[in-house]
Amino acid sequence: MNDIAIAVRDLRKRYAHVEAVRGVTFDVRSGTTTALLGGNGAGKTTTLSMLLGVLLPTSGAITVLGCDMLRDRHRVLPRMNFTSPYVDLPKRLTVRENLRVFADLYGIERASTRIDELSAELDLVDLLKRPYGQLSAGQRTRVSLAKALLNRPDVLLLDEPTASLDPDIGDRMRSHLESYQRASGCTMLLASHNMSEVERMCDDVIMLRAGAVVDSGSPARLIERYGRATMEEVFLDIARGVDEPVPSATRDVAA
Amino acid sequence: MNVEAMREMSVAIDRQRGVVPSLRRVRALIRRHAYLLLKSWPRIVSMAYYPTVTMVLWAFVTLYLAPTNRFLTDAPGFFIGAVLLWDVLFRGQLGVSLTFTEEMYSRNLGNLFVSPLRLYELIAGQLTMSLIRTLIGVGGACAFAFLLFRYSIFTMGFPLIAFFACLLAFGWAVGLAVSAMILRYGLGAEELAWAAIFLVAPVSGVYYPIGVLPSALQAISHALPTAAVFEGMRALLLQHAFRYDLFRNAVLLDVVYIALGAALFAAAVHSARKRGALLQMGE
To answer: pTM of the entire structure?
Structure first.
């Protein structure tokens, strides 16, 4: 079995006068969670959009579960899903109606059972009959997550998955994603600004700045290399342009 | 569920290609819009409102002119039939365009385009919803025409189905082109959804023969299936003859326009994918 679930090679996206993504190359191992980190405008959402096929790259190659996403994305889309704050669900439809529509789009057998199952897991039971447009931002995020898990995806792309959730619900969502991954062996790629979330959930981190990969590795390894105590500090170093990791010994002396 | 079971399910999903899964995805789109329609009676009423009011207006014009006009004495249902068929065209186009703008307003395009839904299934869903909207809108007006004026458009018989199909198909073609424009230029271009079809009204000969048009405009008329349909309708009502030549022309022109509309829509989607617009479109 191929150990690499997502392979990205020399991916580029150029708009009229801006090169949003500049030759990004990375692999995401099957069954792992990888974070795509970077400041605003670093190219995270652009990269995720290209992985999903809703944005065409200027050049480069993307392979997901062995399929070329630029030529054959419909072969693999039933095995993928995503959430993003940049998209919504129809506001006048109830939560159940929305989930039912997407269950049909993804070809889910026994859709009602699957919706009930997810509603119980994500604490949505009381919201099923309410129009999506009447939900709070946090409730909408949970519904989007339910939509993303409907087809039990093998690859899950998450753009700010716990944005707008209070710490309690955010923690429960993270736990749910973790247990889903343990049960399914799903590969997750997430873009997040929540560094404690990244430290907790991610096996690997890919750091982007100005559309290029500037560093990568496991959170523990990056923290060690940058001589920092948390991913938050590593993020700040990289986002602010500290390209060369400072050996921890030097840092100690400087301090 | 263990890892093996999940894998098996993934394989099952991967195999979901072919006609049945495709129809299921089209059904999902219809379900999405049906939910919306069924929970809003004002939406349903508004679909039939305009065709009914226009029909009533032309029915009274007919009642006023008929006693002194031999043309209307011979074909009393002429104006009512014309206005109802025109609404098939208008509702057909509007049905496609509004179904698409609804997705844009909902900021739902991103979800749709990352799902297994294919472009031709999206188009099929739009066209089916257009048919449903047209049947509700024009069907309501037809019912009122019978209740108020004892006029039944169904007296046209089989040719009515031919006229209906040709006009609906042209409405779909224009609707796809309008959807393409809205996707390209954003919801600011939504006015096109309401106004676009009226561009062809003067040269379609809805209420008059295209022979009254200047020759340059007649040339345009001959390139439109609508003109063939309304000429055919007049031939049926006045000469009681179904003009197969006009029907054939309308069908051939419809095929060309549907292909153009679909190509334009596909090009707009491709352009939106290049510009990254699918995740950004919305209110």
So the answer is: 0.89
